[in-house]
Design brief:
The protein is mainly α and 350 residues long. It is 60% helix and 8% strand. The protein has helices at 29-71, 79-99, 105-112, 116-146, 157-161, 217-245, 250-256, 258-269, 271-300, 304-319, 336-344; strands spanning 3-8, 13-18, 176-177, 182-183, 189-191, 196-198, 203-205, 210-212. The strands form four sheets. A two-stranded antiparallel ribbon has the order 1-2. The protein has a two-stranded antiparallel sheet with strand order 3-4. Strands 5-6 form a two-stranded antiparallel sheet. A hairpin with a 4-residue loop joins strand 3 (176-177) and strand 4 (182-183). Helix 2 (79-99) runs antiparallel to helix 4 (116-146), helix 7 runs antiparallel to helix 8 and helix 8 crosses helix 9. The radius of gyration is 37 Å and the shape is elongated.
Length: 350
Amino acid sequence: MRGTHSFTSSSSSVCVYIYEGICPTNNSPKSAILRENGKHTRARVMMLLSPLKEWWRRWWRSKKKKGKESRNVEKRNPLSAIAYYLVVLIGYLLALDFFSDLGDAKNTIKNNNINNNQKKKTEFIKLFWFTLHAVFGIVSQLLVLKSDPGIVTEKNHKVCYKMFPFDDLLYEEGKSCRTLNIDIPARSKWDAVTNRRVCKFDHYCAVVNQAIGLRNLRWFLLFLIVNGALCVHGGLVCWNRVMTRIPKHWHAVKEKDFFGLFLPAVMYHHTRSMFSMFVLFSVGFGVLGFALYHIYLVSMNVTTNETYKYAHMRRVNKRLPKSERVDVVNIWNRGIVLNVKEVLFPMRVY
């Protein structure tokens, strides 16, 4: 019995015993009928709700199944890659306008005493090399886009698992991937954009619309160098256009007062060319600087993803007492030559 409660009235005192919600003292036929009716009512409600419960269970199971399947489906947005192609196309069309700007070439030819045919030949040679450079830039982007970054699957899991040792700091042995149901290899990471686990994951690049990892880091470096140099090449084309259109006596001003008089005058009379040159130089040297940063990471055998983790570990170490600090050491650094060789000639994952 759970307890006893006494209720006192003017006529009598009734003692009610409660045992699991049923009063055993009341054995009248009326109470028995009420209990039977309550059981039948509950049974009817359960019969009505059972189809709804079954539908809910099936819907939830199908949703979980679709969620697991969608994680293995590659979902990449091609807009960033299309934007890259548009930028290259627009830049190339502007360059064509610069190269083919021969309407005022007569004055330039007279001033510089150059033959008209020789002038056209020189312009076509420059246009050919710029076109070849632009095509090479697009090819480098396609190489990264179509290359395998080093995808970890159930088939090649054992091969990827043996590639790199665990440092028990950034990567601990024994952890499992809930999506693939496999043990997580060292230096691998699940890419949320491409929905794949990549061996030696570096980062996801939106411009090439691809994850950068073990197998395609070399092509990504080639992409950065080629396209950075392409921007600088375009800036030089703009500067060459300005230099071939200015009067001859301006060159003397350029030697005497370049920043004070010559540069403002050139920017005023050739605004479009100078603005394009500054933009292209800024983007080009920025991309080349990014390439140098990645070359430095390659020489140290560390990925962009791992640099963030190392920085976090160092911040945590500063907050801890000296006795509790952990040594942050890169165990995969084998020297510059072997590190560069690992990127240029990566290990196979199959």
